[in-house]
């Protein structure tokens, strides 16, 4: 039995029990059972929310898993999510699917902890063991709650004195953090090999990267944006693995691929296509294979202001090491057809109305010396059916030749009502006027909910396309 997960009292008891067993067996002249060799040890959750380790079994083998975690009592827990806030699991490194996970059924309660102690028969292959502790939970009478453990500001929080009404019950944030610190040393997972030679089992750093990965946008922080441009010389088959956050109605952390020439999104992570990714219900995963024609593209992944590998505010997905967007080429013959490029320049600036505040109606002229395509980049606020803060382009006769239409926009980050238009428009030679108009709330410098990712460009900008 692994001692690192035991309390001091447990360890002393087990040591005395082992000594008594040793003396009894020795007196009887019976052979002693050798200690099971350890393959994986995941602990040290004081400084990391997630620990992981990969291992490869050369043939079908039996593995002994011992893990100690914690959970809310089931009484009053009705949100549909697992009550565990400290637990472990095992992934198949090739399929990225869970083959074992701690839950309230396969564990037994040991005072404040849940203990998993099982033998698993695993086929030959590569696996990844994970352990996560994103929060700490407590209960008082019929009430239950969990508190996020943000290790980025842990020192400052622990230095605070208990205060407020909840402090009398040890339920304020500072008291809960101190309780968590006294318990976290007991959390962890270990894997043992009860039979066979441990030298046969190789280890690797999780996650295992599959072959021919060409673009990896690892989303590592809140409020981030990651991009990579690439050129496709001839049609290729592209495998996409996207892991983000959202619901069946809206995604908060997600990715897309843009055709750099037309500004059209050729692929996007969407609420109706993304599936549950394990952990909290808001973790979403979209896996698919697409055919991509020759051309120039930009892959993008964005995150909002909470719940990322920097600090999981709820249970992380079951594949936390691949949070973001990963593109690979399943066909070996396609490798030479895709090359990475620098991000394309936006083109010459023709007109700009940005950092637009509330109750403004602004306009600026621009001219085209010849027929040409222009890129319109606009951010505004959407109303129930149309744009509340909008933009449009008029020709010399006052006719609208382009307009920001809600149905043709994309999420701009922050609040749901923040919308982005990024379109290519072909205009004939002539004079034009760019217009922006806002209503009385939620604009640059005075947001009444979360601002968009790119607040400095709130309004509209027109670029020439070379």
What's the short story on this structure?
This protein has 466 residues and is mainly beta. Helix content is 8%, strand content 44%. It is built from three helices and 31 strands.
Q: What is the tally of helical segments?
A: 3
Dominant shape: flat
**Helical coverage, percent range:** under 10%
List low-pLDDT spans.
1-9, 11-15, 21-34
Strand fraction equals: 35-45%
Structural class: mainly beta
Question: What would you note in describing this structure?
Answer:
With 466 residues, this protein is mainly β. It has four domains: 33 residues, no CATH class; 170 residues; 129 residues, Jelly Rolls (Sandwich), CATH 2.60.120; 116 residues, Jelly Rolls (Sandwich), CATH 2.60.120. The strands form five sheets. Strands 1, 2, 3, 4, 5, 6, 7, 8, 11 and 12 form a ten-stranded antiparallel β-sheet that branches. A hairpin with a 4-residue loop joins strand 26 and strand 27. The N terminus is likely disordered.
Please give the structural blueprint.
Blueprint: H1 8-28, E1 38-42, E2 50-57, E3 61-71, E4 84-92, E5 98-101, E6 108-110, E7 113-122, E8 125-133, E9 135-140, E10 143-148, H2 154-158, H3 173-183, E11 188-192, E12 202-204, E13 213-218, E14 225-232, E15 236-246, E16 251-259, E17 265-268, E18 275-276, E19 283-292, E20 295-302, E21 324-328, E22 338-341, E23 349-353, E24 361-368, E25 372-381, E26 390-395, E27 400-403, E28 410-411, E29 418-427, E30 430-437, E31 459-464
Antiparallel strand pairs: 1-11, 2-8, 2-12, 3-4, 3-7, 3-11, 4-5, 4-8, 6-7, 9-10, 13-21, 14-20, 14-22, 15-16, 15-19, 15-21, 16-17, 16-20, 18-19, 23-31, 24-30, 25-29, 25-31, 26-27, 26-30, 28-29
